[in-house]
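Quick one, probably user error.
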């Protein structure tokens, strides 16, 4: 049975203790044919199947790997238990489809009876702070709940208990809002604080009308981080124990493994890699597969006094390829006294697919590679270094792309590093799809690269003028001319880590980084782009400084505002006092302010600054329409949308935004934003984060590089925030502005996606820096009106951009997580 029901939770209905509920999802998202049935000692019980869907469900299952592109439907099986339950022994639930039958749940009646006596609750945290014990959790009940704290000596401990709304909990208990007529959200979450007692243990006792449960804790061992170093240790132990009782040892161990290896704070790449490597059966199937198009693949490798061990390992990795129509073109540039001569002769005799070119004099890296290219006869040419390794499926995956995309003439893959002894794989680089601005910031493409012969003949071979960065120059020349660049999001190449290589010791090859800067500059020069390339914050990173036109275009700064006079003044003052760009106008869009001081401030700034205009929006708040209104009134060729709670940091901030925007291929540009505590608030937007979209690297420290320096490198993204976003007016008008149906949420992301859809790039430039005084935590959407509005706008966005959400953000990588913003392993 393929479309299996995956159980996520089991509980009792909080309104009727006779009803037991199973919650989960199907592997293919939709249930399809078949049914779920419950049996008590073999006797079929009455059941009702319910289904919930929406953004909350999608967020819950964002990292679940299934056959469906995503999970946005959760199913509830409501099982009515009979009178006299205590006389039975076992409850079982089966998924049944025609003659097929698979058990999805089993528990003892003894366990059911115990759980009936306990409230549906969970203690999430427990820690010490300033001499007090702080704990938090939730309880779901249709009757008033009571929290008390008891010491191990039997005495009650005075405690302060506060209740708050928990929409995330409520979504798992929909019966709490059924048929009540009460539109207020029940307060399910609790926070408890009490003085650290002298006794050895304490217990938080959760009690409802007829149920009670105690969470015990050895308080003497609690520290600032919580019991045993983690605020969540004990709750997780209790949760694991409860899961074991419900599901047995095998499923519990599997579940714990999933949490440890895929849901923890750090991912173990070694174990992760084992989980994604093709199996023996898959590799066998690849070898047997016959592609419609079967190109000859030449693998060009320059050799220079290569250690025999590494050379043989490289050759073995090529010979192990599941796609066998290849030739290995080895150029020995070691010179007349080459120590490789006998080894190469032996390899040629044993395998006719190995071709060798030898030079009588030592060759540089470019000339050596070119000699290998000269003897290549393949329809496509791949490149490898003399001591690296290919994965067994590397050529197969490339040929698969060639068959799926006949126009593909430049192909690259993800990569990792392999230790000197070939036993350890580490530092995987999971790359985005083709990203020209990131490529001009660093050679992120690197390995594995495969090029169609026709493209190679157009762009020419490697240029020794760029030795040290000859591959970088070659890649830039290729992508300028390529018809279709394809990225394979799989690790197909293993880069041998050397102590003295540029990968491990940057200062050992300073010339290589200087050559890289010249390669990017040459790329700009060929395109006729007026820009200067300088080295970035670290060796191997590059920064582009765009030349400003002699007649600087007018930039219209559009700022929506409602009261918050001090925030608006700080924003304006930062531009007036810091900005080196002068041809600016400010369009302040007043919308429904109520404080007289605000209007007095408007009069003041218009008197003192001729380039400030205040226009008045009379309708209800709609962020999209307010900004559209401002754009209509603006006079500039470029529109800078700015929140009223941002503060410019660097004097050339506007130039940094305008520079990329001057390019014909760019539609809009976003900035790097910080919270007041100098942590990242925005370093671009990734589609799929949190189920819809979210900011990258939130909470990272200012100065952090981010995953492969993504925080500090310019790059093309699917979206940036409109808290600070520059847009060409003609691009804004072509996209028809912001969508008024998205009043508050997702409107800037939707706009950017339409800009991309119209063929223009959205660029993140980290060198435009601002503070954003937005609250780090907006809290819960804790009113029915806010929840309804958010869900409505989320549904609009999801339906509109279903394809990119299914396929994944091209600026991200499917091997990276969607439930965190730090680009960790999925």
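Nope, works fine. Designed sequence:
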């Amino acid at each position: 049975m393929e479309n299996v029901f995956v159980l996520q939770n089991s509980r009792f209905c909080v309104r009727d203790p006779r009803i037991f509920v199973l919650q989960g999802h199907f592997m293919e998202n939709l249930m399809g044919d078949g049914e779920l049935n419950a049996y008590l000692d073999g006797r079929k019980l009455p059941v009702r199947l319910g289904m919930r869907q929406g953004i909350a469900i999608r967020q819950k299952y964002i990292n679940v790997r299934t056959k469906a592109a995503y999970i946005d439907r959760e199913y509830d099986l409501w099982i009515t238990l009979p009178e006299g339950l205590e006389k039975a022994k076992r409850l079982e639930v089966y998924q049944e489809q025609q003659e097929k039958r698979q058990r999805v749940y089993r528990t003892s009646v003894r366990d059911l009876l115990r759980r009936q006596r306990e409230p549906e609750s969970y203690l999430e945290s427990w820690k010490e702070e300033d001499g007090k014990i702080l704990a938090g959790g939730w309880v779901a009940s249709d009757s008033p709940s009571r929290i008390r704290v008891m010491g191990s000596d039997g005495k009650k401990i005075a405690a302060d208990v506060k209740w708050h709304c928990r929409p995330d909990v409520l979504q798992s208990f929909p019966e709490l809002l059924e048929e009540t007529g009460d539109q207020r959200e029940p307060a399910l979450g609790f926070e408890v604080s009490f003085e650290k007692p002298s006794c050895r243990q304490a217990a938080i006792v959760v009690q409802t009308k007829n149920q009670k449960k105690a969470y015990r804790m050895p308080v003497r061992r609690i520290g600032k981080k919580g019991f045993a170093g983690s605020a969540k240790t004990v709750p997780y132990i209790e949760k694991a124990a409860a899961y074991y009782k419900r599901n047995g040892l095998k499923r519990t161990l599997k579940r714990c493994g999933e949490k440890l290896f895929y849901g923890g704070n750090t991912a173990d790449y070694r174990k992760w890699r084992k989980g994604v490597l093709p199996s023996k059966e898959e590799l066998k199937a690849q070898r047997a597969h016959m592609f419609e198009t079967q190109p000859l693949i030449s693998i060009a490798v320059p050799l220079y006094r290569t250690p025999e061990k590494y050379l043989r390992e490289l050759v073995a990795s090529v010979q192990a390829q599941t796609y066998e129509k290849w030739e290995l073109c080895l150029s020995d540039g070691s010179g007349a006294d080459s120590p490789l001569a006998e080894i190469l002769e032996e390899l040629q005799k044993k395998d006719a697919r190995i071709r060798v070119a030898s030079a009588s004099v030592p060759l540089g890296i470019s000339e050596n590679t070119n000699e290998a290219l000269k003897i290549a006869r393949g329809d496509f040419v791949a490149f490898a270094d003399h001591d690296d390794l290919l994965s067994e499926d590397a050529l197969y995956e490339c040929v698969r792309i060639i068959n799926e995309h006949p126009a593909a003439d430049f192909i690259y893959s993800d990569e990792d590093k392999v230790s000197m002894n070939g036993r350890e794989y580490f530092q995987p680089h999971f790359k985005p799809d083709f990203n020209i601005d990131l490529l001009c910031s660093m050679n992120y493409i690197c390995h594995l690269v495969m090029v169609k012969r026709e493209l190679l003949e157009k762009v020419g071979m490697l240029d020794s003028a760029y030795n040290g960065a000859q591959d970088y120059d070659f890649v830039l020349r290729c992508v300028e001319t390529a018809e279709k660049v394809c990225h394979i999001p799989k690790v197909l190449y293993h880069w041998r880590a050397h102590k003295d290589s540029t990968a491990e010791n940057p200062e050992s090859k300073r010339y290589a980084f200087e050559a890289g800067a010249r390669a990017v500059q040459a790329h700009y020069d060929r395109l006729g782009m007026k820009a200067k390339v300088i080295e970035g914050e670290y060796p191997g990173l590059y920064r582009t400084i765009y030349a400003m036109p002699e007649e600087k275009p007018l930039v219209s700064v559009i700022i929506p505002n409602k009261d918050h006079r001090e925030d608006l003044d700080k924003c304006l003052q930062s531009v007036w006092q810091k900005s080196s760009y002068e041809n600016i106008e400010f369009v302040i869009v007043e919308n429904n302010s109520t404080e007289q001081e605000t209007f007095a401030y408007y009069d003041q700034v218009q008197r003192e600054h001729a380039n400030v205009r205040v226009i008045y929006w009379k309708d209800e708040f709609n962020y999209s329409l307010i900004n559209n209104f401002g754009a209509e009134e603006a006079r500039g060729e470029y529109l800078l949308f700015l929140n009223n709670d941002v503060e410019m940091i660097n004097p050339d901030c506007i130039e940094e935004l305008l520079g990329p925007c001057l390019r014909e291929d760019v539609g809009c540009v976003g900035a790097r934003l910080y919270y007041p505590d100098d942590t990242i608030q925005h370093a671009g937007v990734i589609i799929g984060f949190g189920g819809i979209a979210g900011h990258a690297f939130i909470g990272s420290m200012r100065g952090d590089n981010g995953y492969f320096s993504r925080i500090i490198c310019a790059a093309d993204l699917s979206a940036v925030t409109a808290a600070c976003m520059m847009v060409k007016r003609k691009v804004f008008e072509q996209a028809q502005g912001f969508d008024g149906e998205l009043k508050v949420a997702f409107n800037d992301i939707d706009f950017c996606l339409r800009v991309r859809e119209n063929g223009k790039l959205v660029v993140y430039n980290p060198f435009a820096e601002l503070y954003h005084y937005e609250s780090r935590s907006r809290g819960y959407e804790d009113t029915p009106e806010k929840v309804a509005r958010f869900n409505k706008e989320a549904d609009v966005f999801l339906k509109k951009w279903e394809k990119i959400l299914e396929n994944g953000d091209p600026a991200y990588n499917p091997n990276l997580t969607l439930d965190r913003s730090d680009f960790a392993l999925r």
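The CA atoms of residues 458 and 481 lie 8 Å apart.
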